[in-house]
Amino acid sequence: MIYLDHHATTPVDARVLDAMLPFFTEKFGNAASKQHQYGWDAQDAVDRARKQLASLIGAGTKDIVFTSGATEANNLAIKGAAAARRGERNHLVTVVTEHRAVLDPMASLERDGWQVTALPVASSGLVDLVALSEAVTERTAVVSVMAANNEIGVLQPIKEAAAIAHAKGAWFHTDAVQAVGKIPFDVAGLDVDLASMTAHKIYGPKGVGALYVNRRRVTLAPQLDGGGHERGLRSGTLNVPGIVGFGRAAAICRLEMAGESARIRDLRDRLLTRLRESVPGITVNGTMVERLPGNLNVSFDDVDGEALLVSLDDVAVSSGAACTQAEPSHVLMALGRTKDRALASLRFGIGRGTTAGDVDYAAAKVHDVVSRLRHLSPVH
Amino acid sequence: MRYSDEVLRRVRELRRVGELDGEHVGTGEVGTLDEGTVVRIQVQRDGNRIATARFKVFGCSGAIASASVVTEWLEGAPIDEALRLTAARVMQHLDLPAEREHVAKQAVDAGLAAVRSAK
């Protein structure tokens, strides 16, 4: 099997696993145990990991809140900020192509009385900054725009969007899950107030994430009560092994990102070239310019998407987003794709372990399968 | 929703794909692109039996596997036995979930229409 679905998740890097293991067995202490060595060792390890993550994103360590993942970080950011600003503000702004982990909290707040504006995108996948500045008002509490899209890899203009939000006194949140560790992402340089991230997209373990909170600018209503951990923002015993892994994964990214992203970009471009050469009737979804180096998303004419995926028996890719099956991707629909095209699409995610051989095999396999299915069809 | 190994096998090892023409050929076509499934089955009749069956299909794995099963069962069958083909049998053989009943039914309807039109 060849794995080309690195936007869905990534394998844990051996170096990350090595770093984590002692914290399951020998150094298993609770980081909140202040009275003995077990607790102190765990606390030290958490501090180290916090520093590693903070370094990756240009933050201060006090501004990192560990969570169970990015979904929780998004909920804390959006619901926590809305709750803190309730009364003075009544409006939220986001984009139609956000992950469900942003759209669903927004929908929940809308049912609770908040007004929500979800901006459309161009066929490139990019949000229009003029439309954004018209949508944000003095009543807007939070603007949420993801840094890199999980389906089409498109990179939104975060710095400009944050400035637009701040001009009207709104706080700016970005779901940076697919950006952190893959492309340069500096919270100070971008001037964001809140940023969500997770370990399992960057060769760390599942079940641990973080929210960057610029505490000088924003206050959040915590979503979990029970002990006041993480400066009161997120109660609950810390997942020490997971956090250690997250830190190590972040440190590796910081060292290797530049070289790795160039290598990954070349492989992604190689895949696209091979596909374009051998398969007629394909469309790339989203701009290739402002895009994650490892992402490719392609629609195929006259092919059933589900049959396509099933036929790719030894190449692991996804159709649209990993999370939503049997529904046309809301992201591809937002680009203006018809339902059929949205369904017959493949998302490729190149990763740390991907080789040129993998890419060539995948391209050839896709060509074979698409040809076979088109030949099988009575209407092609 | 995960399909059974039988469905996967039939999708990955396509047999009896194609078209027929000539004498004693009957054709059945069911479904539209808008609906998401189009299945065409053709049979060639030899006296009181179906000699050959072929299919073409646009649609999901369930649709492909159903058409594959139908053509396999039609080939070599006496006409009266062929006409007793049901969607329930196809669903059971492929272990299709209830929500996929319509693709089995479409394949069977196309097969029966082909048998009836083969003179």
Concise account of the structure shown:
The complex is a heterodimer of chains A (380) and B (119). Helices cover 42% and strands 14% of the residues of chain A. By secondary structure, chain A is of the alpha/beta class.
CATH architect. name of chain B: Alpha-Beta Complex
Judged by helices, strands and strand pairing, the structural class of chain B is alpha+beta
Helix and strand element order of chain A? EHHHEHEHEHEHEHEEHEEHEHHEH
Derived from helix and strand composition plus strand pairing, the structural class of chain A reads: alpha/beta
Could you say what the CATH architecture of the largest domain in chain A is?
A: 3-Layer(aba) Sandwich
CATH class of chain B: Alpha Beta
Mean pLDDT of chain B: 95
The parts of chain B where pLDDT drops under 50 for at least 5 residues are none
Describe the protein's architecture and organization:
- The complex is a heterodimer of chains A (380) and B (119).
- Chain A has helices at 14-20, 22-25, 37-57, 70-85, 100-111, 129-135, 158-167, 187-190, 240-278, 305-311, 330-334, 339-343, 356-376; strands at residues 2-3, 64-67, 91-95, 115-119, 140-144, 171-175, 194-198, 209-213, 282-284, 295-300, 315-316, 345-349.
- Chain A is of the alpha/beta class and 380 residues long.
- Chain A has two domains: 2-7 and 258-376, Aspartate Aminotransferase, domain 1; 14-252, Type I PLP-dependent aspartate aminotransferase-like (Major domain) (Aspartate Aminotransferase, domain 2).
- In chain A, 53% of the residues are buried.
- Residues 321-325 of chain A have low confidence and may be disordered.
- Chain B is of the alpha+beta class and 119 residues long.
- Chain B has one domain (5-117): Alpha-Beta Complex (Sufe protein. Chain: A).
- A three-stranded antiparallel β-sheet of chain B has the order 1-2-3.
- The radius of gyration of chain B is 13 Å and the shape is globular.
- Chain B starts with a helix and ends with a helix.
- At the A-B interface, helix 10 and helix 13 of A face helix 1, strand 2, strand 3 and helix 2 of B.
